[in-house]
Amino acid sequence: MAIILILDTATKNCSLALCDNGIILESIDHNKGSFSHSEKLHVFIEELFTNTGKKLSELDAVAVSKGPGSYTGLRIGVSSAKGLCFGLDIPLISVETLEVLTRTFLSEHSVNDNDILIPMIDARRMEVYTAIFNTRFTKLEETKALILEPTSFDQFLRTSACHFIGDGAEKSSNLYQGEHQFFYPEIYPSSKAVAKLVELKYQNKEFEDVAYFEPYYLKDFVDGKKTP
User: Fold this and answer.
1) Which of 9, 87, 112, 141 could form a disulfide with 132 if both were Cys (CB 3.0 to 4.6 A apart)?
2) Number of domains comprising the chain
3) Does 135 fall in a domain?
4) In a domain, 228, yes or no
5) Structure-model confidence comparison of residues 226 and 64, the more confident one
C-alpha cells in the first residue's frame, strides 16, 4: 500500500494523479492546445497536495510517463520526477506513454475482446510513435517511430476491428478508412488511467535507477528553427 504521485507530460496534456493504494485521491488533466508544462507542472503538484491534505513527505514513490513523446515535455516530467525522488529518497517508477494512452482509451470506451488497439503520438509530418496492443495490454508489435503508409497495418486491418488512438490518429484517418476502423484523435494519455498499474509496479519493486534513468525519446531531438 503506497501513496504515489504520477506525472505524464509526454504530450500536450499535462496530467497528474495522486494515488493511495491504487485509488485516485485527486487528479489534474490540463490541455489548452499548447505546451505549458514548465509553468504549470509544479503549480499543479502543489494543488494536488493542498486539495488532498497530503504532504510531500508522505510520498512512497513517484511514477512518470517515460515516452515516447515530446522531447521537451519528457524532459520536464522526468526531471521533476527524479528531483522529487532524490530529495525524498523514494523510488522512481516508469510507464511507457503509449501504454498510458491505451489504458486511458479503455478506461473511457468499451470494445470487443478481439479488437486491436493502436495508440499514436504525432511525430511531425506523416510520422507517428506507435505500438500495437490487444485488449489485455499485451504488445503485438513493439514501439517504433513509423512513417505512415497505406499498407502499414494491413496484417491487422484484414482480420480485426482497429482503434487508432491519440493525436496521431487524425493523420491516419484518411489512410485506413473502413467499416471496422475507428479513430480517436481527441484522446491524450492521462495519469489516472494507470493508478492500479503503478501500484502493482510498486508492490513488485519495479523501480528505475534514479541516477541514470532517461526518457525514452525514440528519436534524436530535432530543432525546428531554421539555420541562418
Assistant:
1) 141
2) 2
3) yes
4) no
5) 64
Q: Would you say residue 222 has pLDDT above 70?
A: no
Residue 81 lies in a domain: yes
Model confidence, pTM: 0.93
Domain that holds residue 27: 3-97+189-203
Q: At 133, give phi and psi (nearest 5°).
A: -120, 155
Question: Please, which pLDDT band fits residue 224 given cuts at 50, 70 and 90?
Answer: very low
Asked whether the CA dihedral 82, 83, 85, 89 is positive or negative, the reply is positive
Using the 8-state DSSP alphabet, how is residue 159 labeled? T
Which cell goes with 214? 532517461
In 3-state terms, what secondary structure has residue 209?
coil
d(CA 94, CA 215) in angstroms, rounded, equals: 9
Residue 223 has pLDDT above 60, yes or no: no
CATH number at residue 46: 3.30.420.40
Q: According to the 3-state scheme, what is the secondary structure of 85-138?
A: HHHHCCCEEEECHHHHHHHHHHHHCCCCCCCEEEEEEECCCCEEEEEEECCCCC
Question: Which of these, 5, 12, 9, 68, lies nearest to 187 by C-alpha position?
Answer: 12
Instruction: Mark whether 87 and 197 lie in a shared domain.
Output: yes
Strand pairing of 3-8 and 61-65? parallel
Q: Is 80 helix (H, G, I), strand (E, B) or coil?
A: helix
User: Out of 30-44, 86-100, 113-127, which region has the weakest mean confidence (pLDDT)?
Assistant: 30-44
Cβ–Cβ < 8 Å for 45, 76: no
Has residue 219 been placed in a domain? no
Q: Is 140 exposed, middle or buried (0-12, 13-18, 19+ CB in 10 A)?
A: middle
What's the pLDDT score for residue 228? Answer: 43
